[in-house]
Amino acid sequence: MEVLRTHSLTKRFGPTLAVDGISIRVQPGEIYGFLGLNGAGKTTLIRMLLGLIRPDQGEVYLFEKKLSARFDAWNDVGYLVETPAAYPDLSVVENLQVYYQLRRLKDPKRIPALIDQLKLGTYAHTKAKNLSLGNQQRLGLAKALLHQPQLLLLDEPTNGLDPEGIVEVRQLLQALVAQGATVFLSSHILGEIAKVATRLGIIHEGRLVQELTNQELTQRLHRKLIVSTLDNPGALRQLSTLGYQVRLNEANELEITDPTALEQPEKIAQVLVEKGYSPRQLYRWEEDLERYFLRIIRNRPA
Ligand SMILES: Nc1ncnc2c1ncn2[C@@H]1O[C@H](COP(=O)(O)OP(=O)(O)OP(=O)(O)O)[C@@H](O)[C@H]1O
What we know:
This is ABC-2 type transport system ATP-binding protein. Belongs to the ABC transporter superfamily. Residues 4-230 form the ABC transporter domain. This protein is an alpha/beta fold. It has 2 domains: 4-219, 3-Layer(aba) Sandwich (Rossmann fold), CATH 3.40.50; 223-286, Alpha-Beta Plaits (2-Layer Sandwich), CATH 3.30.70. It has 11 helices and 15 strands. The longest helix is centred in the middle third of the chain and has 16 residues, at 163-178. The radius of gyration is 25 Å and the shape is elongated. It binds adenosine-5'-triphosphate (ATP). Adenosine-5'-triphosphate binds next to strand 2 and helix 1. Residues 13, 16, 18, 36, 38-44, 188 line the site of adenosine-5'-triphosphate (ATP).
């Protein structure tokens, strides 16, 4: 069963095509990370997944049920979209009590357990309007989790959190998935999302430009061996003669992209020493995630 599926989902705001024919499938137990720059269309997509805005075209299926006015599985969905809304003059506990009653929950231990889980204990009686952005986000997450939903739809869930909070949310999501939940979350930071998502969708200008697993992401990062000697043009000729893929970069260093050279850089060092081009420096360079992300969105087909 697919927990979430969209078919050619499209939304236009005047001249802006905010979401352009997006089809995605999310399986149970996945943490699907939806990644895009500001304005890429993430929030619009999540709002359509929640029925908060109506698509111009396409369909959404949650738990294989088509989203419509008759959709009846909202109790299985938890969400956090943009800055979480809370009753500003109610405390953290009171805010959660409102949602507890609206959801007709019957487990009085649930609220203290969540306050504990989201490390909101110190602020339990603080009015929502006086919380920091990070703690408002924690309260938003607590509300999303209150009814123990099977599917969580989270728009930028780490917004406003400090590095420790980001790690805690990551661990929390992993724990929820271990208990059987499925998560769909958006972010504009690949480095962050790559740490938690099992699969990634990259969105740019409303279009899904790439989908890949975390493993595929690691394999697709560019890697090269950077070498410098006292005579780089001479070393380049030597290595080319031996059949290596090598070039001089803008800094006049040797860049070797052969997989064999990357696996065994010591062989390159040995060859260069034998031919009289002793390396002064030799290191492996790996593309970072942000560079990868920018490369993918810039190289996309028109
Ligand atoms: N209600 C609206 N009216 C007009 N344009 C809108 C509306 N909502 C979104 N847009 C436009 O649609 C595009 C996608 O916006 P969206 O908020 O979905 O992007 P996003 O990826 O969530 O960005 P961010 O990370 O900044 O929230 C943007 O160009 C935005 O200006």
